[in-house]
Write a structure and sequence with these properties.
This protein has about 550 residues and is α+β, with helices and mostly antiparallel strands. Helices cover about 40% and strands about 20% of the residues. The protein contains 20 helices and 22 strands. The strands form eight sheets. It has a five-stranded mixed β-sheet, with helices on one face. It has a four-stranded mixed β-sheet with strand order 1-2-5-4. Strands 18-20-19 form a three-stranded antiparallel β-sheet, sandwiched between helices. A hairpin with a 5-residue loop joins β7 and β8. α1 crosses α2 and α19 packs across α20. The longest helix has 14 residues. The radius of gyration is 27 Å and the shape is flat. It starts with a strand and ends in a 5-residue tail after the last strand.
Length: about 550
């Protein structure tokens, strides 16, 4: 995130500190002095004292003191200051008690606005400094807990094989064990947010947690066939949504030896994990609903308000330690049996889809404000499922998640080295190399070369399962380095390069061309310009 300033008059020290804390209270970013909002380099204002230690000025003007780094740059023979602002731990205020936070206006342009008390609480919640779900609700009483929901909880523990010790507890002991009740500052016992969400009467939930809502839609093209919204307690909500999911489930059948293997259009286990994740990790301080949308014949989309918690990104979903925005609520759902007890529910979602010969779960539409998960419900690739099942019969155990991820990544990017795969999957090289060589022995992956330059692609039989045998022939002919060289040669022949040029002139496939262009842009060999379908690429200007 960038912030440009110094315009016609230099920012005062106080305003500079506010601009820096505004960035720190969002995601961090870079503040440039001497560059206009439109990107024009105008240089520092002539009255600005360049000898002043701006890092010390910002630290002095903020509390807790904000540590930034300042670098002097020369652009177009003009002096510009680059101030790198880190993401703050906690919330940063000015010395006179002011607090700002980064937001977007209606045109999508970033600006700084005063932070409210809700912003500060939400940020603490986001950074896992405050477990909102464990807090006693001052507007709720123990009479707001529904005995029928307590009975539903015990039934679910039995049904989903949750923690059996919970069934031996009295009501008061159960409330304490799951953190459903706590004492306020006066010592009065009250339901916690987690307790009211799990066991509360709907009227009490509406009164005390107005942000809680869940929508369920079924779409056929642009036509809405089913449209329901609920504010029920969570356990009842899970049952209500699953009752409406069940009639939409269908199966393909696959003959594997003497057995018939059912392959559903949606794994019930994967759906439950994804839906429970959305309920457990959403931001309940926001007035927004969890949405479950089934687009018939295409995909199921689950979205929840509140972006990924601090330390979690799309790239590190499978490798970062489990984190929850609502620790008490998430722990209760695990002990009831509705969520993966190890905290690796996302792993289960990936495993279920990849084993069924479908694309991996897609979190690409997620933003700072929402987590969006897309699960493919298109027909499974039965040839691929048969291949995985055959490998299981030979080895005596199913392919692990990492092996499935390696095969999926190679299908998307065609040919990669151990180093590239380790970087893509955020795993260490020895682990990646060990799994790759096991896949080579199983004839699921083909290798070329030796040492660190050894590269891998899918084997001929896997390409045949994808009905892409011609793709195997191309991968056997070219390494990633050779593909990059051919793209750069084409770029030298043309003023601008488009992705379709790679498909037409070089015969590359769409995913292969996309990843090659990303690879070359990342290392600066090509300069991308524009966005979306109009994006072009050119060689960097010679200095």
């Amino acid at each position: 995130m960038e912030f440009k300033g110094d315009r016609k008059e230099p920012l005062k020290d106080r305003d500079l500190a506010l601009a820096a804390l505004c960035l720190a209270n969002a995601l961090g970013g870079t503040l440039y002095l001497g560059i206009e909002d439109n990107g024009t380099v105008t240089g520092l204002h002539p009255t600005r004292d360049r000898r002043k230690n701006l890092a010390a000025v910002i630290a002095e003007g903020t509390t807790p003191p904000l540590s930034v780094s300042v670098e002097c740059l020369e652009l177009n023979d003009l002096v510009v200051l680059q101030i790198d602002v880190p993401l703050a731990q906690g919330t940063v205020f000015s010395r006179d008690g002011r607090c700002q936070i980064r937001s977007l206006d209606q045109q999508g342009k970033p600006f700084c606005r005063p932070a409210s008390a809700v912003d500060v609480m939400r940020r603490s919640h986001q950074q896992l400094e405050l477990d909102w779900s464990a807090e006693p609700l001052l507007t709720a009483t123990l009479d707001d807990l529904n005995p029928a929901e307590r009975q539903r909880l015990c039934t679910m523990v039995r049904t989903y094989k949750g923690d059996p010790s919970l069934l031996e507890l009295s009501d008061d002991e159960l409330d304490g064990a799951l953190g459903l009740v706590g004492r306020d500052v006066q010592g009065t016992q009250r339901p916690t947010a987690a307790g009211l969400l799990l066991l509360g009467f709907e009227a009490a939930i509406r009164r005390c947690i107005p942000g809680h809502e869940c929508g369920f839609q079924v779409l056929q093209g642009t036509e809405v066939r089913i449209n329901h919204f609920w504010r029920s307690p969570l356990l009842a909500l899970v049952e209500q949504v699953e009752q409406r999911i069940d009639p939409l489930l269908t199966e393909q059948e696959l003959d594997v030896g003497l057995f018939r293997v059912p392959v559903p259009n949606l794994s019930k286990r994967a759906f439950r994990e994804a839906f429970i994740n959305a309920l457990a990790h959403r931001d309940y301080t926001r007035l927004a609903a969890v949405h479950v949308t089934w687009q018939l014949g295409e995909q199921l989309v689950i979205s929840n308000p509140g972006g990924f918690v601090r330390g979690v990104t799309i790239d590190t979903l499978l490798t970062t330690p489990p984190r929850s925005r609502n620790l008490a609520l998430a722990d209760a759902l695990k002990r009831i049996g509705l969520a993966e007890r190890t905290g690796r529910g996302v792993d289960r979602i990936y495993q279920e889809l990849l084993e069924a010969g479908r694309n991996a779960p897609n979190y690409g539409q997620s933003s700072l404000d929402d987590v969006v998960l897309q699960l493919s419900t298109q027909p499974a690739n039965l040839k691929l499922v048969a291949l995985w099942q055959g490998q299981q019969r030979l080895s005596g155990e199913p392919l692990g998640l990492l092996s499935l991820l390696l095969l999926h990544t190679l299908h998307e990017q065609r040919r990669l080295t151990t180093v590239q795969l380790a970087e893509s999957l955020h795993r260490d090289e020895p682990t990646i190399r060990r799994h790759l060589e096991q896949l080579v022995e199983a004839d699921l992956v083909a290798a070329q070369g030796q040492g660190r330059g050894r590269s891998y692609t899918l084997s001929k039989q896997v390409y045949q399962a994808f009905d892409q045998e011609a793709g195997y022939q191309r991968q056997s002919a070219f390494t990633p380095e050779e593909i990059d060289q051919r793209i750069l040669e084409l770029a030298r022949q043309r003023e601008v390069l488009r992705r379709r040029d790679l498909l037409q002139a070089l015969g590359l496939e769409e995913n292969q061309a996309t990843h090659a262009l990303q690879r070359l842009s990342k290392r600066g060999a090509l300069i991308p310009e524009g966005v979306g379908k109009g994006r072009t690429y050119r060689l960097p200007t010679a200095v």
